[in-house]
């Protein structure tokens, strides 16, 4: 929620900023930044709720799918996916 709700765009240059992680370099730019309506907290919360509801349905449909923790080094993610394809885990019956 914090990452998405703090995004801003400069309408003059189209450059994107984040109020915490990549703030605008000057007060002039900071004053003209705009937030996309989809990045408002209530809209993000609604999207997360819809995502959570749909993910449960998809997990039932795609029973052979596996969970990937994407918060890692890209090479570790690739190796994990590759190992799941080449040496899949035994299925529950």
UniProtKB/TrEMBL annotation:
Keywords: Kinase, Transferase. It comes from the Eukaryota. GO terms for molecular function: AMP kinase activity. InterPro entries: ADK_active_lid_dom_sf, P-loop_NTPase. The keyword Cell wall biogenesis/degradation does not apply. Belongs to the adenylate kinase family. This is Adenylate kinase 8.
